[in-house]
Design a protein that fits this description.
Pathway: Amino-acid biosynthesis; L-arginine biosynthesis; carbamoyl phosphate from bicarbonate: step 1/1. The protein has helices at residues 2-19, 25-40, 96-100, 164-170, 181-191, 219-223, 265-277, 287-296, 382-398, and strands at 61-66, 71-76, 83-90, 108-112, 116-117, 122-123, 145-147, 150-151, 160-162, 175-177, 194-200, 232-233, 252-254, 282-285, 299-316, 322-334, 342-348, 354-359, 364-367, 414-415. It is α/β, with parallel strands linked by helices.
Length: 416
Amino acid sequence: MTNFLTKSISVSRAVSLVSHGIKPFVATRGLATVKDQSFTLNKKPPPPIAPYAPVSLKPTPATLKLKSGEVYTGTSFGANVHTSGEAVFTTSLVGYPESMTDPSYRGQVLVFTQPLVGNYGVPGIFKDEYGLLKFFESDRIHCEGIVVSDYASRYSHWTAVESLGEWCTRFGVPAISGVDTRAIVHILRDQGSTLSKLYIGEDPDFSKIPYSDPNERNLVSEVSTAVPRGAAVTVLPWNFNFNKVSDQFDGIFISNGPGNPTKVVETVQNVRHALATYKRPIFGICMGNLVLGLAAGLDVYKLRFGNRGHNVPALNVLDGKCQITSQNHGYALQDNVMPNGWTKYYVNANDGSNEGIRHTTLPFKSVQFHPEAKGGPQDTEFLFDEFLSKVRTDKIQREGIKTFVPETFISQPQVV
């Protein structure tokens, strides 16, 4: 292995020197050896090596412009298209395939605070025993573009099948590297999230790209889609009135999603009706927490720069335990005054924003973070177990089962 590495490095250096018009000793000695062998075999010497053809290695420039006026120039390593969206940042150290395929990033230009991105490439389409994607949140990239400080075009990982740049190009997503992401994050942190434009090519003409504000769109309708835990799950569209069929289900799960929760009016109305008529367990995550809060009578507000990362501490107000969570949201519930019958469940240990609510007497609760943690920590994965356990218990009591029955003998709970 050592010899192989040494020879590889020598050849690489030799090629580099030759390209600059220098004849390295290693390369000359190698050619001489081949030449001597040729004469020994009474063969004609090989033809002279043709001079290197000029190859243009000039990178494609890219420019990022924030609506607040700042402009950053760098290099493109993704699709050769322009884009626009809300500039947001994530503090995740790893997990860029999961973040980029998270529908919650719909309409956003994602800035990575981690300096080096792309070093482990992009994995292939691997599925688990239940047919779910193992390394992605969905089957496509949802963010509008990405911004990194240092892009690693050469990757190494046993699951990787392509580079981050190749992946972005294949999905038509522009990407820029070589910019000061620290400065960008400082701006987003101090003044809040802002709209941005990403131009690929020479002489950027930003007048050709209108600012696109994803918060003015119903993003949930654009992405509307399970970890298996012994439950039969029926996935319904965002605006489906599930109250018409709710008696067929043992629980309701309100999923995560992108954008402004006030835009999903139909969903909020349907959940509000369920809170008044449905007494079986209801659980929501991320956007589901915002929807449940709106349905319960709370207001929402836009966070200054949002909470996005795999290392956000959330404090459980019931037992005082602090758990590290994966988050991706730009809105929060205004929980300084809680509606009758509702109380806080989790609080963000960094900024004090709401991270969850629960009903004091009925089996309704939600959290602002992602317990499924893909990628990220699994500290709060138990919340899914609690929800399914409550669904099973409620089903047993409702169907009149008086004695303990193992879960394997209970018909699968139906969750919508």
